[in-house]
Design goal:
By secondary structure, the chain is α/β, with parallel strands linked by helices. It contains eleven helices and 19 strands. It has one domain: 3-Layer(bba) Sandwich (FAD/NAD(P)-binding domain). The protein binds flavin-adenine dinucleotide (FAD).
Length: 434
């Protein structure tokens, strides 16, 4: 076991490992224009995909970010791509009726296909690979539950998933910590930093103006659209798209009341011997499990490191504190990695919602897409594109997600006081396996 003082490599960095290949400084000296047809606030996947659609529709398009473009989750995530839909068909049907439930699941599938088509069509080099996901059952009961879901076939949105028993588990993953699991063959992996850099390039080529370190501080309706104050001066816009997800703040209080910001944490290990990586990750899958406070992990695209993420804290901001907690969980799964140190540790703020679904639409004339509940690599780009097209007047019915009621709680203003007790309860449930 590494001693606590030696858990970090001597060249440890408290930044995303992805930033080594895609450094964050991104300023082409663009100046904030006085007006634009479409203004997008937030330059992550949501904002950039929206901007690309608006610009392709022939509209002058500007995107601003409070930090450098991509500073948010879009260069910090684990690079795992799923359909981004958490509730199963039965739950969706119960809450929204069968027709909408089927449409939502189909759009989840469409979001997965959207990334693949986009990176292929735009020739973005970002290590996109359809590697499939192994979703481990952390209790025998969870295995049975997964097996029941696997057996339920719904015409039109087949996942193609299959079960792997505990006895055969080592063909997927070198651990005995799970009681078997389910494989989703269509899920994919990507280098999130390279993907974001590729999106920036496409947006610029389409004529989008990208203004960094330009926080919007106020937005007001006018006769012809909106007037927006920023730290770099005012700008007027005919249409505005809010793409701030886990960083949604007082600029848009109605949206702030509808998302729950929560920290998500990741470490990268130092390089590991190829034989060990081959034994632990024989199929190169992305990985997650059935725990309420899920762990998500994968080999790095070069298969030399483990990228290991989870919700080990709520709002911890010091990666030197969150890193060792993740390391302990990594070792619980793979005891033979006890001597492997952490080279990078980082965090970001994701946005949960009260119904665990993403949301998009128009609120008082402002378009928005957000609330990906920690699974937005595919969905953010997909719903961002739909909102870009809607703002450009190309889509009257941009997405069935616009039919979901974007709920809040009485007295909730964006500070989730209720999270600490719920997370403590989930942690206990996961630990005691009930
Ligand atoms: C550690 C971590 C791991 C994750 N792993 C995965 C994963 O493996 N798979 C997956 O599907 N999802 C994952 N996610 C979630 C995924 O990254 C996000 O859902 C997705 O990136 C959201 O993109 P976005 O563009 O909506 O928001 P972001 O990329 O967060 O961008 C929002 C931007 O808005 C800007 N902003 C906020 N307020 C203002 C303002 N007033 N003015 C100007 N700009 C403003 C911020 O500076 C920020 O750059 C992870 C997230 C984290 C943090």
């Amino acid at each position: 076991m590494v001693k606590s003082g030696e858990i970090f490599t001597p060249d440890f960095k408290p930044i995303p490992w992805w930033w080594e290949a895609s450094p964050r400084r991104d300023d082409d000296g663009a100046i904030l224009p006085q007006n634009t047809q479409v203004l997008i606030i937030g330059a992550g996947y949501t904002g950039l995909h929206a901007a690309i659609q608006a610009a392709r529709a022939g509209l002058s398009t500007t995107i601003i970010d409070a930090e450098d473009a991509g500073w948010g989750c879009s260069t910090r995530n684990g690079g795992q791509i799923s359909t981004s839909i958490k509730p199963n068909f039965e739950t969706l049907k119960k809450h929204h009726g069968e027709e909408l439930a089927i449409s939502l699941l189909k759009e989840g599938q469409a979001s997965l296909e959207h990334v693949e088509a986009f990176v292929r069509d735009e020739s973005i080099e970002c290590d996109f690979k359809v590697v499939g996901r192994f979703h481990g059952a952390h209790t025998p009961k969870q295995y049975e539950q997964l097996a029941r879901e696997c057996d339920t076939h719904h015409p039109g949105f087949e996942t193609g998933a299959w079960m792997v028993t505990r006895e055969r588990q080592h063909s997927e993953l070198g651990t005995d910590a799970y009681y078997g699991g389910m494989v989703f063959p269509h899920h994919a992996s990507i280098d999130p930093g390279k993907y974001h850099a590729g999106l920036l390039k496409v947006a610029r080529a389409e004529g989008v103006k990208i203004i960094n370190r330009c926080a919007a501080t106020a937005v007001a309706k006018t006769a012809h659209g909106f007037s927006i104050n920023t730290v770099k001066g005012p700008i007027s816009a005919e249409k505005v798209i809010i793409a701030t997800n886990g960083y949604t703040g007082a600029l848009t209080p109605r949206l702030q009341r509808r998302v729950i910001p929560i920290g998500s944490y990741v470490i990268a290990t130092e390089e590991i011997q190829a034989e060990t990586m081959d034994r632990l990750f024989p199929k190169n899958r992305i990985l997650s499990d059935t725990r309420k406070l899920v762990y998500y992990y994968r080999p790095s695209p070069d298969r030399k490191r483990v990228i290991f993420g989870g919700r080990v804290s709520l709002w911890e901001t010091d990666p030197r504190k969150s890193g060792p907690k993740l390391h302990a969980e990594l070792i619980n799964l793979f005891p033979e990695l006890r001597h492997v140190r952490i080279s990078h540790s980082w965090a970001g703020s994701v946005a949960f919602t009260f119904d665990t679904m993403a949301h998009c639409g128009e609120d008082n004339g402002l378009y928005y897409a957000m609330g990906y509940c920690g699974s937005g690599v595919g969905m953010a780009g997909y719903l961002g594109s739909r909102m870009g097209m809607a703002a450009a007047g190309l889509e009257q019915e941009p997405s069935c997600f616009t039919h979901l009621k974007f709920q809040t709680l009485p007295l909730y203003s964006g500070r989730p006081w209720f999270l600490a007790p719920s997370v403590a309860w989930y942690r206990l449930r996961d630990k005691l396996s009930f």
